[in-house]
Queue: 4 jobs
Job 1
Amino acid sequence: IGKLNPEFFRTLDTRSLSFIALSGLAGALSWLFFFNALSMASPVAVNAVDRLSIVFILVFGALFLGESLSLVRILAVSLIALGAILIAVYK
C-alpha cells in the first residue's frame, strides 16, 4: 500500500489512457469554468449552482447505471435543488 508499481502503467491499454486523459481535461475545464463564473457572479450563487452536480449524479446514476431511487434520496436531492435555486435567484 502506498507504493506505485511501474508494471501497472504497462497494463493500461489505449482506451483506458484516453479516458484518463479526457478525465483530466474535463477536470481542468470544470475549474476554469468555475473560476470564470466566480468573476461573473457572487460566490454564494456560483457555489449553489456547483452543488447541483449532486442532483445530476443521482439522475444520471439512475438513468444509466441502474442506481435505486428511494423516497429519501429523491427528497434529499429535491431539497438540494430547491436550495440551490432559492440561493441563486433570491440574493
Job 2
Amino acid sequence: MTALVRDRRTGGLTQLPDPDGCVSESGSGGQCEDGKALRGAASVTVSPDGRNAYVASLVSDAVAAFARDRSGALNQLPGWTDVSGATLAG
C-alpha cells in the first residue's frame, strides 16, 4: 500500500519517503514498513475524519486497520479482523 500526501494548492500527489511511503506484507527489503494481513489487498478506504485507513485483503481474508499521522504515514493498529469478524492477534 502506498502512502501519498496531497498538495492542497495544486492537488498534486507525492509519495512519502521510504519507509513511510508504503506498507507491504514483507516490508519489501526495508523499503516499506512491514505490515500484516495485506496479501491480495483489493480495496482501501479512509475514515471520514481522515485518521484511519482500512485495507480489505482477499488472500489474507482480512481487513487491516491503520492510523494515519499528521504527515500521512500509516501505522498498523494491533490485530486485524478476518472476514468472520474475529479479531486476530498481530
Job 3
Amino acid sequence: MRRDDLDRQFGQVRQAIGDAMSFCHERGAPSETLRRCIEDLDREADELSQVLRGDASHGDIVAGIDRMESMGDRALGALRQEGPVHPDLLDAVRRTHDELSRLKHQLH
C-alpha cells in the first residue's frame, strides 16, 4: 500500500473517531463502557499517528492497525449492548470499525 493511500485512509479513521468523540462530549455516551472504548481508540490513533510521522516499519503500522481494529470490535460490541442509540453515534462507531477493517485487510 502506498504511503499517501495509507495516510488518506487513516485520516478517514481519525475523522470517524473524532465524530464519535464529539458526540460523546456534546451529548454524553450512552454508557461508561462505550465511552472508554471510544477514548481508547482516540488515544491509540494519536499514538499511531506518531508512529506514522516517524520512520515506522510496515510491521509497526500493521500492529497498530491490528490493535485499533480490535478496539473497534469492542466498541461495536459495546454499542450492540446498548440497545437503541442515536443514529449519529451508531454511524461514527460503524464507520470507525469498517474503515479499520478495510485498512487492516489492505495492509495484510
Job 4
Amino acid sequence: IADKQADVAAATNDANKDIAKARADYVRDTADANYDVAKTKAEGNLKVAREQCDQLKGDARDACQTRAKAAYERELADAKAAFEQAKRTASNTEKHGG
C-alpha cells in the first residue's frame, strides 16, 4: 500500500508541475502579446502626435515634438515594466506551482 501511495503522490506532484508550467507559459505568452499591443499603440500615438505637431510652427512645433517623444518613451517604459513584471510572475508560478 505504501508503494501505491507513493506512486499516487508522485503522479500528483508531476501533474502539479505540468499545470504550473502551463500557467507560466500562458502568462509569458500573454505578456508577449500585451507588450506587442502596447508597443504598437505607443508607435501609433507617436505617429498621430507628430502629424499634429507638424501643423504647428517654430518653437511650438519643437515643444510639441518633444512632448510627443516623451509621451512615447513613457508608454514604452510602462509597457516594458509590465512585461518584466509578467515574466517574473510566470517564473514564480513555475517555480512555486502557483
